[in-house]
Amino acid sequence: MNQYDVAIIGSGPGGYVAAIRCAQLGMRTAIIEKYSTLGGTCLNVGCIPSKAMLDSSHHYEDAIKHFDEHGIEIPGEIKVNLEKMIARKQGVVDQTTKGIEFLMDKNKITVYEGVGSFKDATHVNIKKNDGKTEEIEAKNVIIATGSKPSTLPFIKLDKERIITSTEALELKEVPKHMIVIGGGVIGLELGQVYKRLGADVTVVEFMDRIIPGMDAALSKELTKVMKKQKVKFALSHKVKSVERKGDQVIVKADNKKGEEVVFEGDYCLVAVGRKPYTDGLNADAAGVKLDDRGKVIVDGHLKTSADNIYAIGDVIKGAMLAHKAEEEGALVAEILAGQKPHIDYNLIPGVVYTWPEVAAVGKTEEELKEAGVEYKVGQFPMRALGRARASMDTDGFVKILADKKTDEVLGVHMVGARCADLIAEAVTAMEFRASAEDISRMSHAHPTYAEAVKEAALAATDNRALHV
User: Fold this and answer.
1) Quick one: pLDDT at residue 435?
2) 194 and 56 Cβ atoms separated by less than 8 Å
3) Range 128-137, long-range pairs (CB < 8 A, 24+ positions)
4) How far apart are alpha carbons 14 and 20 in whole angstroms?
């Protein structure tokens, strides 16, 4: 029987990063993955392919809507070749997953293909695709099995017309009318992809606003911008049935007045979140306890109820974000090596990769009000930036929340071009307990989108933004 210092079940961003860090720290490491490619949901059917589709569809939208204004004239009709677009997306995925294979080889990590399940706390059975089972022994085990798309109890996913995000990345045609159930990150990103390609898109959301977990100002701004893009929203609507009739999908929902509203389309994307994936794990055999939502219960050091078993990523509490899982993977590896790492969960940024992008870190205005914290607000519009006007990306703003007495930055919320990258400045500043004045006194290159961060900090510091 092969023996290891640590075995990781699952090869998503949390799992493969944990494996690399364990190997770097001198541990004999194995990783177990049920699919034939490494990288988990993120690399195969999540973060990476969706960004590839977002970028491709963005190029198409620019070509048909904005090239002429830039003085770029293209003779003839510009058409979408969806098959080719999806093939490019798959090429990006293949290149990325092969990169993870390379990293496993480079770090001398043993890769097992099959479903990993506990025989007991130190033995893992691996059921391979040919039906054979192999057993390995590990002093420590890290559960990194991730999550899968959620649905509603009354919805029957046929994966043809009533689909999840996985199938939305492989469609054979551009929908005529895509109904998106759920106004969160996944629904908005994929809804925007197909809107750009020519579909009518209606987002049906139970809450009274989209991206409800983020600052309300971000929800309001993104709604306004996406309405300009002709995306329709049905907020405060409780979906009660989804039915397919031939090539049509009928969605029935009750609005906030209790009245029934009927939506008809040819595709329905169910994007109501994700749930932890522990199928076949046999956690009981190892003494690993799950909560009533199926998440693995862990302590402050991500240790489960079994002394030698840890869990990370989507399968435990907290935001389901690839970069959170990566941080947790590295943290557990370093704990196993006797180090004392830490994660500040307040400083894990959240991003929505629509265009304009949405990004945030720290406390929302609503959270500060609820906690009774006295704060001040500095906000600066993207349209006031020379760089934004030059690129015609004038939607959005940067908002900084700072402690009223100490001026320490408590939260940063932004909508605009390249905010997914700009948020890193805010994370860095907050990691070092910066004040709004600290940021305002840093030189920012001109012309850049990042100047909006400086100006918002100036606005929070005695309301002295320069360019508004």
Assistant:
1) 98
2) no
3) 135/1, 136/1, 136/2, 136/3, 136/4, 136/7, 136/30, 136/112, 137/1, 137/2, 137/3, 137/4
4) 10
DSSP state of 104: H
State the residue for tokens 């809804």: 191
Distances (CA, A) of 280 to 36, 104, 273: 17, 25, 21
CA distance 394 to 418: 12
Token couple for 385: 């930036």
How do strand 2-9 and strand 29-33 relate by DSSP bridges? parallel
Largest CA-CA distance found in the chain, in angstroms, rounded: 69
Catalytic choice (59, 70, 301, 446): 446
| 123 catalytic residue (yes or no) | no
Residue 281: band (very low, low, confident or very high) from pLDDT cuts 50, 70, 90 = very high
**DSSP element (H, E) containing 4:** strand 2-9
* DSSP assignments along 12-68, one per residue: SHHHHHHHHHHHHTT--EEEEESSSSSSHHHHHHSHHHHHHHHHHHHHHHHHHHTTG
Q: What is the reported pTM?
A: 0.96
Nearest 5°: phi and psi at 366?
A: -65, -40
Give the per-residue pLDDT at 129.
86
**What backbone phi and psi angles, to 5 degrees, belong to 434?**
-70, 155
Could you give the residue range(s) of every CATH 3.30.390.30 domain in the chain?
A: 347-460
The span from the CA of 284 to the CA of 311, in Å, is 14
Cα angle: 195, vertex 196, 197; to 5 degrees: 90
CATH number assigned to the domain covering 162-272:
3.50.50.60
DSSP string computed for 282-338: -GGGGT--B-TTSPBP--TTSB-SSTTEEE-GGGSSS---HHHHHHHHHHHHHHHTT
* pLDDT 10s digits, 153-171: 999 999 999 999 999 999 9
CA atoms of 61 and 187, how far apart (whole Å)? 19
Q: Please say whether the beta carbons of 159 and 289 come within 8 A.
A: no
The mean pLDDT of the chain is 97
Helix (H) or strand (E) holding 166: helix 165-168
2-149+275-343 domain in CATH 3.50.50.60? yes
326 CB burial (10 A radius; 0-12, 13-18, 19+) = buried
First to last CA, the chain: 69
Fold of 347-460: Enolase-like; domain 1 (3.30.390)
What residue ranges of the chain are covered by domains with CATH 3.50.50.60?
A: 2-149+275-343, 162-272
**353 residue type, one letter:** Y
